[in-house]
Structure formats: C-alpha cells, structure tokens
Amino acid sequence: MPHGLRIAREALAIGSVSRSEVLRYLGYQGQPLSPELDRRIDDTVARCIRIARSRMCMASYAVREIGAQGVALEGCTLRLTGHDIVEHLADASEVMLFATTLGAGIDRELRRLSLTDALEQVIFDAAATALVERATDAAEARARAYAAEANAYTSWRFSPGYGDLPLGAQGDFLAALDATRQLGITLTPSDLMVPTKSVTALVGIHPTAQPGLVSSCSICSLSDFCTIRQTGRTCRG
Ligand code: SF4
C-alpha cells in the first residue's frame, strides 16, 4: 500500500471551467439566453479565472481505527464521525485529505460587486463556485494517481457537511493540513471557510476498486488532470 504523501502548498493552473456547471449554479433550466447574457457569462468566467489564485495542499494519514465512534487517523487529532463516513471508508488503509482555495482576491471582488452590480455578482459567484470545484477535481486527480502508483484505489470525494459528517470537523481538518499557514484558510465561528471559495475534501485509499466512481474516462470530470491513463491503466484497475 502507499506510504504517505505531503504537499504543503501547490499552485493549480486552471484555465477553464465547465460552462454547463456555471449555468447550473446560476439555476439555469434550459430557458433561452440572450446573446448579451451569453457573452457576459463568458467574460465573467474569464475574469474570475484571471483573479483567482488557485492553490491546494494535501496530506495522507494512515487509518488507526474504524468503528462506531468514527474513523481515527494516525498522527492527527481529526476524528471523522458519522455513519456515512464510516461506511465510506470501510476498508480504507489510508485517508487522503486535501484543501483547495481560490484566494482572497475572489472575495474582494464579490464584495465590490455586491455594492456595484448585483447581476454581475451572481454570475461571478457561480463562476467562482465552478472554478473551485474544478481546482478540487485537479487535487482529487492527484490523490487518485497517488493511489494508482501503489496499485490501490480511491473512493469518491467526501467533505465535512456531507451526509452526517459534521461541519464541526473543519477545524481539525484544516489543522491536519496546516491549511491556515499554507493556504490562508480560516474559519468563521459557524465553521464556514474564509476565503469563501475554498473546499476541504477527502478520499479513502482502498485495496480494491470502489463503487460510485464514473464508469468511463470519457465522462470523468478529472480527465483533464489525470496522469493515470498515460500509464496505460485507469483508476478502475
Ligand atoms: S480519466 Fe479515467 S483513469 Fe483518469 S481519473 Fe478519470 S476515470 Fe480515472
């Protein structure tokens, strides 16, 4: 099995986002878009990409114990509690934690737009949400490659606040990644992250292929960042 990975801080080169994802975050349901709005979305996405400083950090921890009390990791205080995460990590030997952020410039721009242009703020917010998800795809691709190098497999990514994994895990999660020092991510009293366009997530590292991943590389959201296929294999074995 793998033997540990630490990435303190790394810039992510994200040059595009899925337009359909931006439209989804805007609540688009197939209604016609005026050419003006169409162009405006493209311009806003491009500006969002220019302003963002997409970065990630990542660390793997060996699983010490999985039981009714949750999942305990070697060498860190983070305990992952709840039925859903226990089931998700059932036979994992290791857990890969990662955090991504677009940086404080995106929040500054959202604040500026809130005072000057409400429509632009909504579009910019949707673009930034799609962009941080894409940055998180890039980080997840890295975790999958790490597992594949050791003939292991990852489960799909899971974040504090999903299912019954409490959002209150964020503090220990960020501490396990040293994410405040590395990426400047802090928490509000209600455990929301600042910069707001930040994501924490984990995948399990498992000895066997896991259910729930896409069945084909052609529809995989990680494909632009995938290094596994270059080896003639896939993350499904
Ligand atoms: S592109 Fe294929 S091999 Fe790469 S992560 Fe996606 S499904 Fe796995």
Report on this model:
The protein has a domain at 6-17 and 57-104 and 135-231: NADH Oxidase (3-Layer(aba) Sandwich). By secondary structure, it is α+β, with helices and mostly antiparallel strands. It is globular and about 55 Å long. The chain has 7 helices and 9 strands. The chain has helices at residues 19-25, 35-51, 83-88, 104-116, 118-149, 170-177, 179-183, and strands at 6-11, 55-67, 70-73, 79-80, 94-101, 153-154, 186-187, 193-194, 198-206. The mean pLDDT is 95. Strands 1, 2, 3, 4, 5, 6 and 9 form a 7-stranded antiparallel β-sheet that branches. The two termini are 15 Å apart. The longest helix has 32 residues, at 118-149. Helix 1 crosses helix 5 (118-149), helix 2 (35-51) packs across helix 5 (118-149) and helix 4 runs antiparallel to helix 5 (118-149). The structure holds iron/sulfur cluster (SF4). Iron/sulfur cluster binds at residues 141, 144, 214, 217, 220, 222-223, 226, 228-229, 234-235.
